Amino acid sequence: MAEVIPVRVAIRxxxxxxxxxxxxxxxxxxCFVEQSQISINGKMFTFDSIFDPTTSQETIYDACAAPLxxxxxxxxxxxxxxxGQTGSGKTYTMGTEETITASSEGxxxxxxxxxxxxxQIGTSDRYRVTASMLEIYExxxxxxxxxxxxxxxxxxxxxxxFVQGLSVHPVSCLEDALKLLxxxxxxxxxxxxxxxDKSSRSHAIFTLCIEGSETKEKSKLSFHVKI
Length: 227
Known about the structure:
The structure is a single chain. By secondary structure, the protein is of the alpha+beta class. The protein has helices spanning about 20, 55-65, 70-75, 90-95, 110-120, 175-185; strands at about 10, 30, 35-40, 45, 50, 80, 125-135, 140-145, 150-155, 160-165, 170, 190, 200, 205-215, 220-225. The radius of gyration is 19 Å and the shape is globular. The longest helix is centred in the middle third of the chain and has 13 residues, at about 110-120. Strands 6, 7, 8, 9, 10, 11, 14 and 15 form an 8-stranded mixed beta sheet that branches. A hairpin with a 7-residue loop joins strand 8 (about 140-145) and strand 9 (about 150-155). Belongs to the TRAFAC class myosin-kinesin ATPase superfamily. Kinesin family. GO terms for molecular function: ATP binding; microtubule binding; microtubule motor activity. Its main location: cytoplasm. Keywords: ATP-binding, Coiled coil, Cytoplasm, Cytoskeleton, Motor protein, Nucleotide-binding.
């Protein structure tokens, strides 16, 4: 019997930005939060969750990411994927360009989840956490935490897919993770579009790997966030 991988899809509708307001643009999406539906040009679409433009970062995290914490420490791989056109709010929601001193109210999913992971680990010495970050641009895989931006190869061994030569970096706290995230974001491929003058032109994947040791055996717990 095939393994069942649960996937949940949530829609977040952002508010109009300053340019859209100046152009007197009108909102084209209606949200029906309680029914988990949106309406576009009179057509209804149903998803697992709907978040309207007034939704806070904390609410998004509590609904979409916080439930994964328990799964991570049970040994399950987890992925959070932000998908949408340029300017739709992916960077803000995930928090991929946050600074260490950024206001906690505006923190995105990544920093909140990493903070939750380290709070759960606490002072225990049973866990080792490492991070890596790559981008996929024009069908090339590039290590974003390596300055020379060398193209890497995707390999498979014994049913496990991995990126050969991808650098991994130890992290011991939220600040360590955000420093690596900032470094990787600075090296991402960018370009100007009609919607965004600093648009990221690649798909980026920020990965945390948690290794936990037991008394008699070692178990590897992995958490993957795709940005």
